[in-house]
Amino acid sequence: MKRLRTFIALAAVPLFLAACGNLGSSSMSSGSKTSTSGTQLTGQSNDNDYEGVIQSGHYTVSKSRGVTNTQDSGNTYNLKSFENGMLSVSKKVFSTKNYVFQEGQYLSSTTVQNWLDRKSKTNSVGLNPVDNGSKSASKRNPIYIQALEEQDYMTQKNGKLSLGGVTVGIAVNSVDYFKKVQYGATYETKITQAAGEAYAKKAANTVLKRMRQKSALKNVPIVIAVYRQASNDSLIGGTFLAYSNNKAGSTSVAKWTALNQKNYVFPISNGASSPNSNDASSFSNFKSQVENFFPNLSGVTAQAQYDGKTLQGMHVNITTQFYSQTEIINFTQYLQTAAQKYLPSGVPIDITVSSTDGIQSFLNRTASEKKFSSHVFNSY
Amino acid sequence: MKRLRTFIALAAVPLFLAACGNLGSSSMSSGSKTSTSGTQLTGQSNDNDYEGVIQSGHYTVSKSRGVTNTQDSGNTYNLKSFENGMLSVSKKVFSTKNYVFQEGQYLSSTTVQNWLDRKSKTNSVGLNPVDNGSKSASKRNPIYIQALEEQDYMTQKNGKLSLGGVTVGIAVNSVDYFKKVQYGATYETKITQAAGEAYAKKAANTVLKRMRQKSALKNVPIVIAVYRQASNDSLIGGTFLAYSNNKAGSTSVAKWTALNQKNYVFPISNGASSPNSNDASSFSNFKSQVENFFPNLSGVTAQAQYDGKTLQGMHVNITTQFYSQTEIINFTQYLQTAAQKYLPSGVPIDITVSSTDGIQSFLNRTASEKKFSSHVFNSY
């Protein structure tokens, strides 16, 4: 980081252009207040996050901005988990120390839209299968690929940011929702994990070949990650199945690395099992301590992510009726104690307390911390 | 605190009953998991907050729970600012080190409701004026007192929590909203600050006298604080005008201490002025740096509280369209740098970033910190 920062700073003549670690040194231009010229970086909240690229005071948005968003509207958890997962996979290949994040600049909205459409006479580049005419859930060709997103990872060469690598995420459906007539009922074609994964891996080869045709993408590593979307009724997003790191110049995927990611909603529903019964019972002890705190029952659920049998983190959601600010303050203090006592240690956990009026308070703890820090949302 | 903790711990035979500072020592019962017997405290997030009282695992809710809430539904900012302000006033008299917070246990819902009603043949205890029959905004007797709330402050005596003092907040209207016919249009009777304050101070004497009639309240200090509600169209809550600290046994208010609290919404609207032009220009520099970060304009406003000409703190609200998680992550990193650079230092500031999907991220800094810490809300 230090080296990168110095490099960029040296090059910043006459522009003030500097990266910053942990906000110690500000990356803001000290020049004009309303429009900053040149390239800046966002600054870095912590060493585990990439800095992002700002051009003339504006964030460099994705060239296909919004395409994924629309695609994913069925289950909003998918969007966040897809993009966060792409960042996590990228961190395995492009370190946050040496690379800067930039939203995808090489695949345009039109390109991504055409690739996501079905293959047809008018759209020869479609990655989804041709429409075979059937309206039967089991006989039709489903839409396999629901979203495709590009993320760019920049390095510093001769005082300028330049492309150091690209990550492409391919999201396949677990359920393809379709209508037989416009505005009609919604039907479902289920896609098994094996079928979806195989389809995505085949498409990944096509995508890699096509990307190599762009001169800027010829000689950089391209990571491709395959994601399986959760169904629309899921209370949690999907997970990544596999990724490949394709060396500069390679035009077909040589090797896939499997990912053993699984998401769970706590409390585990009857009949289902969690990968680790200790975590499940920790959570239910916490839940029973917390749900009866007020005369009105508070709802306590959690999203948990596992890598194999190892818990990776938890998002706890508590919903409660809002009566008074002092109740929320005291509830939050109580949660701080109860969470430390009952919830699994050694993993990042956050807890949000919401009412119909929106979020009321929030607690979190990183993997290495012992105590939860908390914040009660307030108003003058 | 230390002393209090030891006292309570000593007394906790056979119950486990202990206060705790900063979560270092847990106040949770180590006994039964689902129902904890005896008195506990919530634990304390930081030295500036009171701990709260838990009885048999349940929070000790106010005996008049919900009455204020209903009263205040016109402007939800009022409720939070009223209760937080009562805590702030209380801290001037009852230190967080030596007192424990308990929701009001001496004034019941019925009592508070009757006091808040108009005086009438059937309700001789009403603190609001008799209905003079007029429907004219300027001739009718308005409802002056909109809310009344009790907070109890407990100390430790002979190993048991006992009442150490009480704070009563009296909230007067700046505007009394009324209807001439049921379900009809809403009309307004404006109440000047002077008139509202005078009315509340007179009522305070009555309240004090009545409270002294309860044996438990005879010999404890009773703090009475007068609050002026903001109008329903305000983007900020009301403020406290004055408080009195009435010694044990006293039945009439001897002395009022004026409070010079003022709330402002930034950016200051045209023609209006803020108590400190530096703060206002700091905020607008921050705003112009931030609002053009994305191609879609982000809305940036703030609530600021002043004591005289001195800024006490700021709640900044940023609304932005939600496109992607990576945008929010980078925006938040950028805000961290920009907020540190532009926003006034030495006061507590928090910043929430929301979209139509709810809160996306959050930053805050205490008065003594230099750097903002941040959290991006996430999902698996």
From TrEMBL, chains A, B:
Pfam families: CamS. InterPro entries: CamS. Residues 28-45 have a biased composition (Low complexity). It comes from the Bacteria. Gene3D superfamilies: sex pheromone staph- cam373 precursor domain. The keyword Signal applies. Residues 1-18 form the signal peptide. The keyword Signal applies. Residues 28-49 are annotated as: Disordered. Keywords: Signal. PROSITE patterns: PROKAR_LIPOPROTEIN. This is CamS family sex pheromone protein.
